[in-house]
Write a structure and sequence with these properties.
Layout: E1 4-5, H1 15-41, E2 45-46, E3 52-53, E4 65-71, E5 74-80, H2 85-94, E6 98-106, E7 118-127, H3 131-149, E8 154-156, E9 159-162, E10 168-171, H4 172-180, H5 195-204, H6 215-227, E11 234-235, E12 237-240, E13 262-267, E14 270-277, H7 282-300, H8 308-314, E15 320-326, H9 327-335, E16 351-352
Helix pairs in contact: 1-3, 1-9, 2-8, 3-9, 4-6, 5-6
């Protein structure tokens, strides 16, 4: 099949299209500039990580782009990273204490108003500092972005949020109870998550469940259909204490082992950031990676290699907290853009048959 550009759509480089897009793109640039100044004032060092990695990451539902590297020793399969996380954690192991990265990342199979195959990600890490500090960081970065964009509120599809208001903090269990009437923790009381119990509660809440849905599948359906649309309305929401089985790179909570030190930041019903109290046990991390790749193989018929170098570094990495934030999504909300491509300087070209 031969693919050609859609003749009914003017390309992004058309002067009239670019003129319409440019104000939002300039606002995006101002956001990045004020963030860099804020991190510098906080004694962070900016790092520039390689996009080509031995592994793209080991999460079951994140696809990857592969590339073949050729050198005098032969050929080797590498991947464009889905996040700079592994590289940043290696730098923590090397001795960096506070670092941030503004990089392009790549995820295959994702495209839509909120998804683009190549997008910008801000990640930052604090060695020896708690997850709560990252939550406070998020509040600062939201109002800085709004000021830089000249925006009084974040906007998306009729929903608004005040970026200067203190974010609401809500546990995942509280959110499931409030918006779906589901006692999530009761399905986590045993040695393994109770799929049938969660499926019954979800079905009673009006969620369509299929026979091959796993506990994780049901959890994701409830989250996306019943919970996420209510998050970040009026002000940002920090959704925290995720089930441990939904946080492959986070350590378990010291208060309740059923949940992990993980949170996500939402505004206008849109997920913006994902933070962890970082797991530093390489043996447990390997077990979780294998579990994730077994699931990927079951669903998609493929698996990605484990970065052995990363696991070796994890053995000497200090306790740390880290977070990834979608730059383009935040720029969308700050400028009122309806699509992620409206705030990307050179989007991947849409093609049609």
């Amino acid at each position: 099949m031969t693919f050609v550009p859609d003749p009914g759509v003017s390309p992004w480089w058309s002067p009239h299209v670019h003129a319409d897009r440019r104000p939002r793109l300039m606002a995006r640039g101002r956001i990045l500039a004020v963030w860099r100044s804020w991190f510098a004032a906080q004694d962070f060092v900016e790092v520039d990580t390689a996009a080509l990695q031995a592994s793209p990451g080991n999460e079951a539902h994140i696809g990857a782009f592969a590339a073949t590297m050729r050198d005098p020793t032969g050929e080797r399969l590498l991947y464009l990273h889905s996040s700079p996380e592994f590289a940043c954690k290696k730098l923590l192991a090397a001795g960096e204490k506070r670092l941030f990265s503004l990089s392009h990342v790549f995820r295959n199979g994702e495209r839509g108003p909120l998804h683009h195959p190549e997008f910008a990600m801000l990640e930052w890490y604090r060695a020896g500092e708690p997850l709560d500090q990252l939550m406070r960081d998020c509040a600062d970065l939201l109002w800085l972005a709004a000021d830089a964009a000249g925006s009084r509120e974040f906007r998306y599809r009729g929903r608004t949020a005040d970026p200067r208001a203190e974010p609401e903090r809500l546990t995942v269990a509280e959110a499931f109870d409030r918006h779906a009437g589901i006692d999530l923790l009761a399905t986590l009381d045993g040695s393994t998550p109770d799929r049938d119990a969660l499926a019954a509660l979800a079905a009673a809440a009006g969620i369509r469940i299929t026979a091959d849905d796993t506990w994780s599948d049901v959890f994701s359906k409830v989250l996306s259909e019943k919970v996420e649309p209510h998050l970040g309305l009026g002000r940002a929401t920090i959704l925290h204490d995720y089930p441990a089985c939904e946080a492959a790179l986070a350590k378990r909570s010291s208060v309740d082992p059923r949940v992990s030190e993980r949170f996500e930041l939402y505004a206008c019903g849109v997920e913006l950031a994902n933070g962890f109290g970082e797991l530093t046990d390489p043996h447990e991390q390997r077990r979780r990676f294998e579990q994730e790749m077994n699931e990927r193989e079951r669903i998609y018929g493929e698996r990605f290699p484990v970065d052995e170098d990363f696991l070796a570094a994890l053995a000497i990495m200090p306790e740390a907290s880290g977070i990834a934030l979608g730059v383009d999504r935040l720029a969308m909300l700050a400028t009122g853009a309806p699509r992620i491509e409206d705030v990307i300087w050179t989007p991947v070209v849409e093609i049609g048959a």
